[in-house]
């Protein structure tokens, strides 16, 4: 069942203008994320509606509500589906859309194990049934200095972690993407896969993993995730660079020691374990102070905007890093 909670850390409705085609109000009305709909496959609709006021009217209302005459735009769905990083399918932004469509995402199994009292395996259906789903509008900031605003559907990672009852030794959480070179051409070829040593892996501290902002996403724009976006489940950590948000997860390990992470292994000086969005700490090869926002219009008309500390979520997450030198722990 789909439950929509408005938490203070979400982008608020008055801060957003929805994609014209996205009638998210139906989501509230229909609440059609029936398990039946969810289990019909990767293109299933989680629920849609037709109550959204015309774009111009919404913009006027939003401007009034924020008092700034400005609003945050959702990135159109077509961009979210066609401009991707998923090196398992190739390094070109169009490769994931082109080559991931046949990825088998149902059946799927995710193991949650390690420093827990009760390890468990989730099946495809469990992803949609075991935890109440919420819609969250989050900013996504890639380390490559482009950004999107995405309406995710998912559940807090904390809900899943609590259900396996971590032991006192659980200090970190490690994640792994599916390893299947037959299905993932980038895993079969060093050149196509960008020189990564697969499987792709990521990690968080336990405090980061338990933070209410940290989401396991199973859908976006009211539909189950497309393969190129990391179906059937991916991590979303909105205050960190996008590479932390690992796709198509098959294992979640609670650990005593900090796990190795893919990009850190590949280039230690460029990609840290924390990878918090930070406009004051540049990538060695480019500035992180601004970003190209991918919204309406073509890619070249994308506007540049200032990058925000912790990607705009400082109020919610800065406490996690008190006393930590963010220049050293980039
Ligand atoms: N997960 C896996 N397994 N492989 C990847 O190459 N790329 C990361 C992240 N998760 C990646 C991944 C990067 S760099 C970004 S910016 C986001 O996915 C992009 O997510 P999107 O394509 O859905 O926008």
Number of helices: 11
Largest sheet: 7 strands, mixed
Provide the succession of SSEs. EHHHEHHEEHEEHEHEHEEEEHEEH
Structural class label:
alpha+beta
Assess the beta-strand content as a share of residues: 15-25%
In the CATH scheme, what's the topology name?
Answer: Sulfite Oxidase, Chain A, domain 2
CATH superfamily: Oxidoreductase, molybdopterin-binding domain
Low-confidence stretches: 23-55, 57-70
Hetero ligands: ligand MTE
How many distinct domains? 1
Radius of gyration, Cα only, in angstroms? 19 Å
What is the CATH-assigned architecture?
A: Alpha-Beta Complex
Average the pLDDT over all residues and give the rounded result. 85
**Care to count the β-strands?**
14
- Please estimate the helix content: 10-25%
Describe how the helices and strands are arranged.
Elements: E1 16-17, H1 25-30, H2 35-38, H3 55-66, E2 72-73, H4 77-82, H5 95-99, E3 109-114, E4 120-123, H6 124-129, E5 134-141, E6 146-156, H7 157-164, E7 172-177, H8 185-188, E8 201-205, H9 206-210, E9 215-220, E10 223-224, E11 234-236, E12 249-255, H10 262-266, E13 290-293, E14 303-306, H11 314-317
Parallel strand pairs: 1-2, 3-12, 6-13
Antiparallel strand pairs: 3-4, 5-6, 6-9, 7-8, 7-12, 9-10, 9-11, 13-14
Describe the fold and architecture.
The chain is α+β, with helices and mostly antiparallel strands and 330 residues long. It has one domain (13-321): Oxidoreductase, molybdopterin-binding domain (Sulfite Oxidase, Chain A, domain 2). It is built from eleven helices and 14 strands. The protein has helices at 25-30, 35-38, 55-66, 77-82, 95-99, 124-129, 157-164, 185-188, 206-210, 262-266, 314-317; strands at 16-17, 72-73, 109-114, 120-123, 134-141, 146-156, 172-177, 201-205, 215-220, 223-224, 234-236, 249-255, 290-293, 303-306. Strands 5, 6, 9, 10, 11, 13 and 14 form a seven-stranded mixed sheet that branches. Strands 4-3-12-7-8 form a five-stranded mixed sheet. The longest helix is centred in the N-terminal third of the chain and has 12 residues, at 55-66. Residues 23-55 and 57-70 have low confidence and may be disordered. The site of ligand MTE has 15 residues, from loops. Residues 84-88, 142, 177, 200, 229-230, 242-243, 245-247 line the site of ligand MTE.
